[in-house]
Amino acid sequence: MKRAGDIFSALFSNAQMKEAGEYSALISCWKDLVEKNGIAAAASHSWIKTVDKGLVWIEVDHPGWKQILQTKKSKLLSDFHYRFPKMEISGISIVLCRPSSRPADMDNVPVDKNSVPVTPAVQEKAPPQEQPPDSGYDVIKDKALREVLMRLEQRIIENQQTG
């Protein structure tokens, strides 16, 4: 059986691996950032959906959490700048999630069924399609990590094609 590092090395260049590591670290630090800013409970009701052109998209499962995070937006942005200076994060957008877009590990958190999802002002690109079994993604059991890596790969490919 191949190790995850071997699979990633086969799929991505060293530069892509470094970028993936930064992206993964950013996604993973969300709980720490909200705790540091005195809103630890927000960690189970919000998550970083993606990072696109310097904008961190954060989804929440209730309008109240959106309002709470809005009050800490400048502190969160400052923390992103401090932790990830090379990513050149210029802003944060906080949106209400569509129920189908909630991460699998948050399925046990209740959602307000009366809330209406907000569509981001910038239209999101469709998520990458599932990869064929020989792509290497099938060995990643953590669905959330697999989806993040697939989105990252898609974004890197798009950036290489446009830049």
Provide a descriptive summary of the structure in words.
- The protein has 163 residues and is an alpha+beta fold.
- It has one domain (4-162): DnaA, N-terminal domain (GMP Synthetase, Chain A, domain 3).
- 43% of the residues lie in helices and 12% in strands.
- The chain contains 6 helices and 3 strands.
- A 3-stranded mixed beta sheet has the order 1-2-3.
- Helix 2 (14-28) packs across helix 6 (143-162).
- The longest helix is centred in the last third of the chain and has 20 residues, at 143-162.
- The model is unreliable at 107-134 (pLDDT under 50).
What is this structure, in a nutshell?
The protein is an alpha+beta fold.
Which tags fit this structure?
single chain, 163 residues, alpha+beta, three-stranded mixed sheet, 6 helices, 12% strand
